[in-house]
């Protein structure tokens, strides 16, 4: 799980200028395959950036 999160963050970090992010997983995430986890992270990254842009 950590490896997937780190890689996803690394590939998207250009969108996260001056943002600190803490990632917590929910129970059951280990039941998902890597493709599902990756897609969920992509959606979350987009949501984080959208929220940050609204506040700045």
TrEMBL record:
UniProt keyword Nuclease, yes or no: yes
One GO process term, biological-process aspect: tRNA processing
One Pfam family it belongs to: Ribonuclease_P
Keywords linked to the UniProt accession: Endonuclease, Hydrolase, Nuclease, RNA-binding, tRNA processing
Superkingdom per UniProt: Bacteria
UniProt key word RNA-binding: yes
Gene Ontology molecular functions: ribonuclease P activity; tRNA binding
Protein name: Uncharacterized protein
Naturally occurring in which organism (per UniProt): Methylophaga thiooxydans DMS010
């Amino acid at each position: 799980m950590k490896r997937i999160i780190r890689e996803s963050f690394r590939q998207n970090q250009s969108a996260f200028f001056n943002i600190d992010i803490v990632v917590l997983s929910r129970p059951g995430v280990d039941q998902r395959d890597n493709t599902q986890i990756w897609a969920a992270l992509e959606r979350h990254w987009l949501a984080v950036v959208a929220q940050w842009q609204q506040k700045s």
